[in-house]
Amino acid sequence: MTAEPDLRVARGPGATVWAPETVTDDPFNAQTPAAALAEPTTPAAALFVRDHFGIPEADPGRWRLRVGGAVATPLCVGHEELLALEHQELDVVLECAGNGRSLMRPLPPGLPWSQRAVGCARFAGVPFLLLADRAGIDPAAVEILFTGADRGTVRGRGTPFARSLPLAVARHPDTLLATRMNGAPLTPEHGAPVRLVVPGRYAVADVKWLVGAEALTRPFDGVFQAEEYLYLDPRGTPEGPVTALRVKSLITEPAPDEDLRRGHESVVRGHAWSGDGVPVRRVEVRAEHADDGRDREHVRGWQPAVLEPPAGPYAWRSWSYRWTPQEPGPYRVLSRATDARGDAQPSQAPWNARGYGCNPVACVEVVVV
Question: Most CB within 10 Å of its CB: which of 24, 187, 197, 304?
């Protein structure tokens, strides 16, 4: 196994310029470099990018959000008007629904993400609830359809990128019309000038380059709702749409193939998260000797890691575990998260035909010398 590259470029004393790792060029899709995932807050320039049709041109001065459909008062809101409304900030895990797809066997179709189409960033924006209340949602409405400015062709049909949310989720006070990330304006690849952020759900819900919000009296059946981003032919999990994040952990230290010294203490570190604002309650770590898969030396079965307080209800929790290996050889270091509902990471990736929601126990292979 080859260690993943560190895609940082240092420029000047103390300065670090980050670059994501390209998966496809056109449209541009890229995953977070491993080194950036060690940060409590993922640098904006390093955060993974998921793009279906290409980045549309978006001039904040010409941007408008149209709120319509089953409402009493249709709205057309400009960028300056939006910025003048009440804002709030939230630390939110963004994870692509296909994150980890490359671990599934047989390999499903789709972008071959490793476990790095994820990050945790601080978003600032206006709760959509403020505009929903101003527009006056019809009591018969069941969903809000959010539409981006990007559009393209899927199966021979022209379509914008559009996803709907149940009315209660769209009106949740933490569902944001985000304008800033990590203290700076959104960049084009991350949805500038305005994107949707729906904490606790896979990032397909976070429609970028947002231009429309329509109240619907019947469920939306567009291509990205009824044909894509579905759990199809799943093994061990229900069929249905991709919604809440599944509980998951990530090992950020040691690095893959790193040499650890026998008899010297090493610190295993990482992050863990779950969906819908449900907190992670426990992370456990174990080490298996890769020659025979049995527990060796200091780690006997799953051992509890130390959890740090999260930055908010939708942020990941950093964790650590101290391990002093006593025998040389190749090891697999594993981590498993459990949330407050009792949901835990499975030992193997839960397979489905589109490769979504991959959340097996995290694993890093190292060598003790």
Answer: 197
